[in-house]
Design a protein that fits this description.
Blueprint: H1 36-46, H2 55-58, E1 67-71, H3 76-79, H4 84-90, H5 100-109, E2 114-118, H6 119-122, H7 133-138
Antiparallel strand pairs: 1-2
Length: about 150
């Protein structure tokens, strides 16, 4: 029982470490992906005027580094192991029996699959590849949440 239900917890910092094992399926080198040209075309076509997805919400003062294009749903290295029926639930444009090649084609050419992120929000401490999903999402709305 909380004897002080209205007491405020003072602002504080907490160091968090996440450690787990990723099980990557076999995949071709990125340079050998026949759909990579579509990814590069999207990047070239949309780079002008692009802004960091996180910075657009929580402020660009926390953004650092160059803008990088991020796959917001699936990374290339795991795409060929994705369950098409599971993808179909959230992305009905992907057939429930889609082949790995069809999924890769969607992955590299679907505008909804891409997000521009500064290097901090992509690969840094506040990055989509580093912070837990819950923390990464929260920083969209809480400026300076992750340092």
């Amino acid at each position: 029982m909380n004897r002080h239900p209205h007491r405020t917890v003072a602002a504080h910092a907490a160091t968090t470490t996440h450690r787990y094992t990723m099980h990557f399926p076999d995949h071709a080198p990125r340079a050998g992906d026949p759909h990579y040209a579509a990814f590069n075309a999207f990047r070239r076509h949309h780079r002008a005027g692009a802004r960091c997805y996180v910075g657009e919400r929580a402020g660009h003062a926390q953004c650092t580094g160059q803008l990088e294009l991020h796959h917001s749903v699936l990374e290339f290295a795991v795409a060929n192991a994705a369950d098409p029926a599971a993808l179909h639930k959230d992305f009905p444009e992907i057939a429930a029996d889609a082949t790995a090649d069809e999924i890769a084609r969607w992955l590299e050419s679907s505008p909804g699959e891409f997000r521009w992120l500064c290097s901090f929000h992509h690969r840094g401490a506040g990055g989509a590849h580093v912070a837990s999903h819950a923390d990464w999402q929260a920083q969209l709305y809480v400026p300076g949440l992750i340092t």
